[in-house]
Inverse folding.
């Protein structure tokens, strides 16, 4: 496996600079893993493509105003910060530009508060302590990806309509296509909605630069799947109903939780094997391995082709950057050649790419 296997050339004019209005009028490419077919629909038709009893899993993380512009105390040099994750009260890990000119002990003034660099990490990654953490939301801006060059008139357009838990530095963009009306129509058909949390972090901005993607270090992101949601998803699996993730971030939470359940079952099986060698125990444990356990904590799960999916039956996702971990996850689920073919067809037909672009449904 090579990182170059996930590379492609995208004409710049296909990078969506503005969001489709209304949200659910974007195009939707539908991929069938069963027969390799591709169909072209619109996102508002999603209700016709799903079945009663399906469970849609959303990431309810909300983008924080993580982009800060300040000045170095003393010299007055301009410094730009991108908050990545909260480490403790007033402590944040951040990308700092220009990183080469910022040293440990540097104080950065930010419109009535200040941040001090406590530690330099890899490259421009640093740890800062802020004098007034509550004021960060007042002085910060919602960060847009570097390929979007037009400022947002309404920052809520870079939030999903169901965003709730503050913590991401980029939107879980597959969810940007949903409207309240579409959610009501989905529920009216008997499709269940479930919510997990994964705060989108550094890897959204970091292409894979090593030749072998297996050597790429994934940065940890904070996720949560509650016991109530875990129980609902486990019941859906037991009843043979489909679990369809909205976005790659939801996939990572569910797969992390399923791997945790599998490990728990394996430990239980090993214990019972020592205590009791009756064959029916093995059958019972195989059923228990289908469970999805609650999860709360940091995850650096990197899903590449060859990954055995435990929780996922379908995926709604946008069109991702070349050489990105997100594209690799999609290829792992749908098949690398199938995804390559779909991307080439999307470019030929003028689909819009990246955060504000169109979507695909993989079943």
């Amino acid at each position: 496996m090579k990182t170059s296997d996930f590379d492609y050339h995208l004409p710049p004019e296909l990078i969506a600079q503005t969001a489709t209005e209304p949200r659910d009028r974007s195009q939707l490419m539908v991929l069938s893993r069963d027969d390799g077919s591709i169909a072209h629909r619109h996102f508002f038709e999603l209700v016709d493509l799903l079945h009663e009893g399906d469970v849609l899993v959303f990431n309810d993380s909300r983008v924080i105003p993580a982009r800060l512009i300040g000045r170095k105390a003393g010299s007055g040099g301009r410094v730009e910060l991108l908050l990545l994750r909260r480490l403790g009260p007033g402590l944040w890990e951040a990308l700092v530009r220009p990183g080469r000119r910022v040293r440990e002990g540097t104080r950065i003034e930010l419109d009535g508060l200040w941040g001090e660099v406590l530690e330099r990490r890899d490259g421009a990654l640093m740890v800062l302590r802020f004098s007034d953490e509550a004021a960060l939301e007042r002085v910060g801006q919602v960060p847009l990806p570097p390929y979007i060059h037009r400022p947002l008139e309404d920052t809520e357009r870079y939030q999903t309509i169901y965003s709730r838990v503050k913590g991401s530095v980029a939107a879980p963009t597959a969810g940007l296509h949903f409207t309240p009306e579409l959610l009501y129509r989905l529920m009216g058909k008997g499709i269940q909605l479930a919510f997990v949390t994964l705060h989108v972090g550094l890897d959204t901005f970091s292409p894979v630069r090593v030749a072998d993607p297996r050597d790429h270090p994934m940065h940890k992101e904070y996720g949560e799947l509650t016991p109530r949601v875990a129980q609902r998803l486990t019941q859906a699996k037991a009843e043979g109903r489909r679990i369809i993730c909205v976005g790659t971030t939801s996939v990572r939470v569910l797969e992390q939780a399923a791997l945790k359940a599998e490990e728990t079952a394996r430990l239980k099986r090993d214990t019972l094997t020592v205590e009791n060698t009756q064959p029916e125990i093995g059958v019972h444990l195989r059923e228990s391995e289908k469970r999805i356990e609650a999860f709360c904590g940091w995850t650096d799960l990197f899903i590449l082709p060859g990954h055995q999916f435990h929780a996922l039956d379908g995926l709604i996702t946008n069109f991702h950057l070349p050489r990105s971990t997100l594209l690799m996850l999609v290829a792992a689920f749908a098949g690398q050649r199938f995804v390559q073919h779909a991307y080439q067809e999307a470019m030929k037909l003028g689909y819009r790419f990246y955060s504000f672009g169109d979507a695909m449904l993989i079943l």
Notes: The CA atoms of residues 139 and 282 lie 58 Å apart. The chain has eight helices and 17 strands.
